[in-house]
Specification:
The complex is a heterodimer of chains A (about 190) and B (about 120). With about 190 residues, chain A is an all-alpha fold. Helices cover about 80% and strands about 0% of the residues of chain A. In chain A, helix 1 packs parallel to helix 6, helix 3 packs antiparallel against helix 6 and helix 4 packs antiparallel against helix 5. Chain B is an all-alpha fold and about 120 residues long. The N and C termini of chain B lie far apart (about 55 Å). The chains are: A mainly alpha (about 190), B mainly alpha (about 120).
Chain lengths: ~190, ~120
């Protein structure tokens, strides 16, 4: 019955994630091309704080892990466990976004905004697009969990939506691996 | 894998897989961080080391978190993924290659003013 449409939904969502990969790929290419165009301003070596980036990475990785735990089949009957793990995921997501915004404000206050150089335009576009995805994911999480809380159970429809959300969240962590490596680690080499 | 008959087509993974994926990702992240922070290798080998570590971590997360390759027969997800990967390589590598040469072919005073 609905099995077929559910499988199609997951495939459709997967295809969306793949196109999103290409979007991030173009932004990575832009960043790499513009990386040395600092226009006499700050270079990546002077700007980035590696331990801070490592902390951001750990927070997002843990969040991706807990979103997976929330959707384990053995837990789906116990709604409190599902909500607990999603709450942890949400809080870690908010913590990650806060850290990212703290870094952005620090850069802008020190005069290294996106207008300062081609390198910074590339940096803010790439990392900002990732941050925008995280923001959308957090809003999406609230929207999906409201019916779950109201109905006190996970209906097949809710399950389908939460499954897509979880894929999205894992996907954002995979993108962040490359931001951490290519932007932050390679930036200070 | 899971034995819940209704979810046969879309695997959710197990606690074991998630914990393994999480611990391995954390170890690989720390490994690339410390090799850069303490400059464990000369610059070029270091670059290849952290890129390799990132690729390994990506494969781990794709398999253990996103369940790539666990689907049944038609392998639609895997095929879409491989197609995306080919586009990605063409776009990213191609852009860098072309722009590098463009920079090289510019007149000296132009490269100076655009840099």
């Amino acid at each position: 019955m609905s099995q077929d449409t559910t499988a199609n939904t997951f495939f459709g969502f997967w295809t969306y994630l793949m196109t999103d990969c290409i979007l991030f790929g173009t932004l990575f290419a832009t960043y790499l091309v513009l990386h040395n165009g600092t226009y006499g301003g700050a270079t990546s070596n002077q700007l980035f704080n590696l331990p801070f980036a490592l902390a951001e990475t750990s927070v997002l990785l843990t969040s991706s892990f807990t979103s997976g735990l929330a959707m384990l089949p053995s837990q789906l009957k116990d709604i409190r466990k599902v909500l607990f793990w999603f709450a942890i995921t949400f809080l870690l997501g908010v913590a990650f976004l806060t850290m990212e915004l703290m870094e952005f404000t620090r850069f802008v206050h020190e005069g290294h905004s996106w207008e300062a150089s081609a390198f910074l335009s590339g940096f803010f576009t790439l990392v900002g697009t990732h941050g925008l995805h995280i923001t959308m994911g957090l809003i999406w999480m609230i929207v999906l969990l409201i019916p779950v809380i109201c109905q006190k159970t996970i209906t097949p429809v809710s399950y389908k939506r939460l499954y897509c959300l979880r894929l999205f969240w894992h996907f954002l962590d995979v993108v962040w691996i490359f931001i951490f490596t290519i932007v932050y680690l390679m930036g200070v080499l | 894998m899971n034995r819940l008959n209704s979810h046969e087509e879309h695997p959710e993974g197990t606690v074991k897989k998630y914990v393994t994926g999480f611990v391995l990702s954390l170890v690989l992240t720390c490994a690339s961080f410390f090799s850069v922070a303490y400059r464990l290798f000369p610059p070029m080998p270091l670059l290849f080391t952290i890129l390799a570590l990132a690729l390994v971590q990506t494969v781990i997360q794709l398999v253990l978190f996103l369940h790539l390759g666990e689907e049944t027969k038609p392998h639609r997800n895997l095929l879409t993924f491989l197609f995306m990967l080919s586009i990605l390589i063409i776009v990213v590598w191609g852009s860098i290659w072309i722009m590098d040469h463009l920079d090289y072919n510019m007149m000296p005073q132009m490269t100076h003013s655009t840099k």
